[in-house]
Specification:
Nucleotidyltransferase, domain 5, about 300 residues, alpha+beta
Amino acid sequence: MKTINNIKIIGIDHGYGNIKTASHCFKTGIAGYDSEPLFTKDMLVYDGRYYLIGEGHKEFVPDKIKDEDYYLLTLVAIAKELKSENLTEANIIIAAGLPLTWTSSQKKEFAAYLSKNKEVSFVYQKTEYHITVEDVRIYPQGYAAIAEIATTLVGVNLVCDIGNGTMNLLYMINGRPQSATMATEKFGTYQCTLAVRELFMQKTQREINDAIIDEVLCTGTANIAAAELKIIRSIAAGYVQDIFRRLREHKYDENTMTLYITGGGGCLVKNFCKFNADRVKFVEDICAAAKGYEYLAELQLSAGKSE
């Protein structure tokens, strides 16, 4: 969280798997109740309803404003950042992002969605919060994660942002984004999870918990039978091969370009692919995009730019 003119800039990365702020990460899951549920540790109370955060899984939807879920998760993200500074009230600017090729067409609607209530009161984890939304600024995913080092990039670089729902590609030539060649594909890591589920059922006639799949994708292994681990690893390896196939379709050349991989999908490339460490770089910080949104908003505001 950054501060400018007594206004808090809060960057929020609205992922399909996780919501990230500059200093927090939590599951993009939410379940609503008309009466107070039994377990209330991670609960949001807003507009007379109760919401448990981290419950379930948010399915991929190309339009994030189709329901209220991302608005409610935004309130939670704001509360977490304010709590880090022992605040319960603040005037804020929300800095958020959208997939690269969707930013221009969707940013006005997404900004309106996030700012539909200028003043908001809610309770999160039994603490009351009151915020005033002064502005919302929307930036392109992928670029935000490397924004602070963009001017240091030399030659031809490809930024590949692999999230839970989408994969975003952006070429940078000597630090300058190449808008004409950017791309967004529905090929996030959740596609890999779905493929694992299907093959595991075919091979074992049993379902497998997503938590086990996530552990293997993130670490390369898990405490399960070797034959069942092999099933998951085979799908993950095939998914990573498909990532690089798609990159080559977008004119990626591993001999002349440097590839920057951001987002949660980076762990799959690390665990299931042999790569040239001189040519493939990883943005390790899962919160890099949220920090980048704050950085870009601060630059614009310091320069007096309206957007």
